[in-house]
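Structure first, sequence second, as always.
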């Protein structure tokens, strides 16, 4: 478009109002509709409109508008903000001229940097195909119109600390149910071991182990001589087996009913050190967990709602998630917050994120706490009273990215720089400065 023509912005969301303000500031005529009908959309899509941005919080509505726009104006340049990966793929498959923007993909590089490398502005993959090549993007000085792109890898000490933390998490109970499960399992194993030793006086090791296992499983019991000590032990062992079996069964039931979002062994154990805690397993939280894991950093999620839509995807990706309220000291201690690298409050409700940040700093003073921010001015008010750490304005980054794309440019990355955002074009280090992304249109 090269900046010519009128741009249609659909969605009276915070992102939509900010993107509209940035376009107007660049001298681009805009039409801003909140929730247009098909007739209103047909009228708005006159020949002078050269680009459309659909910026809604509802992925299904965004998909519907995109399909209607493609029907009314085939091949018009279309930008759509969609969180859900499945919806994105469907839209890209059916509307080839559509550029699907994920607010999570746009903002996660800055959130990741704030969590593990706060001296950098953003950490992102180099290009789109490499899985192991990363770069940092920095603004050398506040207000500078320069940017520096350099290769990056997570320090070996950080990787090692996370690896040790995951190893320490293996077979480590994370709540009362897992403690009961492990207690029952280890108790039964201990009974088998002692029974095997006692039975060595009557036969070989293999035979003793076989008899001990069958006895513990209550399948059969070996014939014992009239030895008072052996009979007393057999009686005590039978009572212990009943208790340990009940505990093991109760632990298994609790584990199955809990949704199995945390494991006792394998990838989904709770790291005990060197990890980043991500509160809120929405699209931003899950994308952040994926990127940090790809960087070699251990992660742990906390989600308040047991029926949250992202939990299934987190389980499929092997991301451990604690179900609980992250403002609770008990939940934060279960997450080993005292040994964590950072905590990221990635939920969409900013006031809840503020409460999480305050709870985290109260439990672990000095912890690096990162907040995902958007439209609420309560963050600024809180920052004036409490040291709550870096704040990443997801809506501002998304609006800046969309605005530059609608102006006919090819943004590579957006980096926060105080109240403004610096946009890098292509894969070069040549930045394009934006004015403050806090401004919103009056449409």
């Amino acid at each position: 478009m090269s900046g010519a023509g009128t741009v249609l912005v659909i969605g009276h969301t915070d992102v939509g109002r900010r993107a509209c303000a940035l376009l107007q500031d660049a001298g681009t005529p805009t039409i801003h509709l909140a929730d247009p009908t098909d007739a209103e959309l047909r009228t708005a899509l006159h020949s002078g409109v050269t680009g459309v941005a659909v910026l809604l919080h509802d992925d299904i509505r965004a998909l519907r508008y995109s399909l209607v726009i493609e029907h009314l104006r085939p091949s018009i340049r279309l930008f759509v903000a969609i969180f859900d990966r499945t919806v994105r793929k469907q839209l890209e498959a059916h509307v080839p001229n559509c550029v699907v923007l994920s607010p999570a993909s746009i903002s996660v590089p800055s959130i990741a940097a704030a969590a593990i490398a706060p001296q950098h502005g953003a950490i992102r993959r180099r290009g789109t195909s490499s899985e192991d090549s990363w770069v940092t993007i920095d603004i050398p000085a506040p207000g500078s119109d320069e940017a520096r792109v350099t290769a990056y890898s997570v320090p070996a000490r950080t990787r090692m600390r996370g690896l040790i933390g995951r190893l320490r998490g293996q077979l480590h109970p994370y709540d009362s149910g897992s403690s009961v499960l492990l207690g029952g399992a280890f108790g039964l194993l201990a009974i088998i071991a002692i029974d095997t030793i006692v039975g060595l006086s009557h036969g070989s090791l293999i035979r003793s182990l076989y008899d001990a296992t069958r006895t513990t499983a209550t399948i059969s019991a070996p014939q014992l001589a009239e030895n008072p000590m052996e009979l007393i032990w057999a009686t005590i062992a039978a009572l212990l087996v009943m208790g340990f079996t009940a505990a093991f069964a109760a632990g298994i039931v609790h584990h199955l009913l809990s949704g199995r979002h945390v494991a006792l062994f394998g990838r989904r154990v709770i790291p005990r050190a060197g990890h980043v805690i991500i509160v809120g397993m929405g699209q931003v939280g899950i994308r952040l967990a994926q990127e940090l894991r790809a960087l070699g950093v251990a992660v742990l999620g906390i989600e308040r709602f047991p029926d949250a839509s992202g939990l299934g995807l987190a389980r499929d990706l092997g991301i451990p998630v604690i179900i609980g309220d992250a403002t609770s000291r008990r939940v934060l201690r279960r997450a080993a917050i005292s040994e964590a690298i950072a905590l990221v409050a990635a939920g969409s409700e900013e006031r809840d994120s503020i409460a999480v940040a305050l709870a985290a700093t109260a439990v672990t003073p000095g912890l690096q706490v990162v907040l995902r921010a958007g439209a609420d001015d309560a963050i600024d008010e809180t920052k004036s009273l409490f040291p709550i750490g870096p704040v990443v304005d997801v809506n501002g980054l998304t609006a800046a990215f969309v605005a530059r794309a609608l102006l006919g440019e090819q943004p590579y990355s957006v980096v926060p720089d105080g109240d403004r955002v610096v946009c890098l074009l292509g894969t070069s280090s040549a930045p394009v400065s934006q004015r403050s992304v806090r401004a919103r249109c009056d449409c």
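Margin note: The longest strand covers residues 49-55.
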